[in-house]
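Our consortium's second objective concerns turning raw sequence data into structural hypotheses that experimental partners can test. To show how far this objective has progressed, the report includes one record in full. It was chosen at random from the queue rather than selected for favorable results. The single chain below, 352 residues long, was entered without modification.
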Amino acid sequence: MHTIGYAAQDAHSPLAPFNFERRELRANDVALEVLYCGVCHSDLHQTRDDWKDWGPTRYPCIPGHEVIGRVVAVGSGVHRHAVGDAVAVGTMVDSCQHCDQCHRGEEQLCREFPTVTYNGQDRIDGTTTFGGYAKHLVVREEFVLKVPAGLDASRAGPLLCAGITVYSPLRQWNVGPGSRVGVIGIGGLGHLAVRLAVGLGATVTVLTRSEAKAAEAHALGADRVLVSTSAPAMAAATSAFDLLIDTIPVPHDLSPYLGLLDVEGVLVIVGNLGDMAGFSSLPLVIGRRRITGSPAGGIAQTQEMLDFCARKNILPDCELIAIDTINEAFERMERGDVRYRFVIDMATLTHG
């Protein structure tokens, strides 16, 4: 299938139109027209080869793993989706499907590592995967999600990465009525963590360095705001939380937050990927507290989240942009000049 996307040709070049071929449909493939694609910080890092120590970027690189689209063709063996269906694709397009993690619906933890939506390697033909900054996408049917009726397609894209990244630990740690949840930071991940935790019935506190963020936090639905730079406020919040969702995207000291956890409380890191500063083990030992991390969720849990968001009318705050402004959007994202996510209207991408 001939199509067009926006690609980086190397770590220093801007994204620009790129014509290419999607593979012919296999029996279990779904082809979709991409209608909207969220812009994730990972897209910027990957196109600039910031993660070369983990694995270099393969160029040309077409990013995008927060995809909302419409089915335009299906393979001969496809039964879950039909032409015309509203569908979504997140961070994965395949996995081994036979390991213990895949069998329990945790494809993101696949023992052979899942095939990621872009900058991955197709498990059959070895080609590089190209993501959703493109007019079309071809995906194995098991990794195509259904967009529930009533969910705003123009805003749903960031749920496929940012949303499931914070929803998964909320579900893993059984958040519900009576749970005391703290969300550290209220950017792209954090604002969704607040809304999802509130939707699950928790009492939610936003932890921020600035009192100026209080009105913003309450507008998102938070019950309380805790200013982390205030020593008296932090001391008063000792043992106040069952779960802390840490969305800070850069290395930082965890020590100030550990004492905020109650006995057997959990701090989940979902923001920073990489080295972190050391911390005292004393709060962990004496309170049986835990520090853990969490990636995006599996396919079944992601579908559960989409259905939940449709029922509760939970959506990210988005700024809709044209594809030809993506390089400017990347620059603004680096400056923190977005509230809270960009979404590309793919109708602005025409065939070349």
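The partners drew two points from this record. The two ends are 13 Å apart (CA to CA). The mean pLDDT is 96. Both points have been shared with the crystallography group to help prioritize constructs.
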